[in-house]
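Provenance and format

Records in this collection were gathered into a single text stream. Each protein contributes a sequence line and a token line. The two records reproduced below are adjacent in the stream.
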Amino acid sequence: MSPLSTPTIDSLRLQDRAAYDVLYRLVMPSIVQYVQRNGGNVADAEDVFQETLMVLAEKVKDPDFRLTASLKTYLTSIAHHIWLNRLRARRHLPLTDLTACDDLPEPPADEAVPTNLVMRWLDQATPFCRALLRAVFFDNEPMELLLIRMGWKNKHTAANQKYKCVQQVKRVAVNSR
């Protein structure tokens, strides 16, 4: 393959490093430009590109996979969706640093926290945190499924998001007492 030719699906299926290097040179500049224009930086763009390649690697495993657009257009579209999902997730995070919040005081042993009180605290959280905490604590959705559904890149990110949302609800609870 010449340095300027677009890799074939077969070369990507074979995990040909040269094919992925060509993709980097062809696609990465437009992803960096898009991410920077939309509030990110080069490191964000690199993360998005890596996730995009992971999606591509999974898709090309399917023998029936066919492109209906150019490979560059396909990858750019995936990258845009990944970045937009990250921006949506960021928008729902509180702007304050939640790691400094104290834990809730323990209720007396003979006094349980009523469920309706917990639900009121939860209702005061951001829509993102409400959805996340309900999925985790009420629907018992496994973090592995949430990781995929929310577009997070790893379990650490998922655990961090869960922690921040729990801290947000704790802060609401402390302020309402």
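Adjacent record:
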Amino acid sequence: MSRPANKRNLITHTNPRSPISEAYRSLRTNVDFSSIDEKMQVIMVTSAGPGEGKSTMIGNLAITYAQSERKVLLIDADMRKPTEHHTFEVSNRWGLSSVLSQQCSLEEAIQETKIPGLSVITSGPIPPNPAEMVASKRMSSVIAELRERFDIVLINSPPTLAVTDAQLLSTRCDGVILVLDHGKVKREIALKAKEGLDKVGAKILGVVINNVKRRKSEGYYYYYYGDKNN
């Protein structure tokens, strides 16, 4: 059977000893130590625009957290172009949109993956009002309940500059990681994405620069840069 075009390579699972997997573990460690006084439990991952690798990045980061023997949940809050149900090969019949519209319970929406310790809530059916959904009181109560049930909650949001969803979600999270494609995003676009998050008081933990070419033996590497303002 051929691999689906939208199925991502979760290298931290398929090749945990690779240099890229080690980079993800370094990212996990940096996030853990990014704040001394506050617990980094609910973390949002976004990008400036589409196609910068945020969904692949958050999937691999979630796996590294699960590999550290923590109970991890990944939420696909990109209810416009959802992907995580393909990545982890689970059903998208019920998901976040279903929970927020009270069509199913939170328990029904949480699905276990093939990765021990890692569960997912997929996006669910695409709703007509995703921004209103993520800004709702129901979303706040869902996140509050998940804090009690999981050690780490990672939220995959839509790109920051495309829609307002990411800004709205960031206010409910302990920190935000911004993913940028090294060869694709111009400096002014990256700064605009950061400014949009700053305006709502989001705590930017750092930036992951994707597709930085290293030596041939290492392929593509991921870097983590701590935010100088924090």
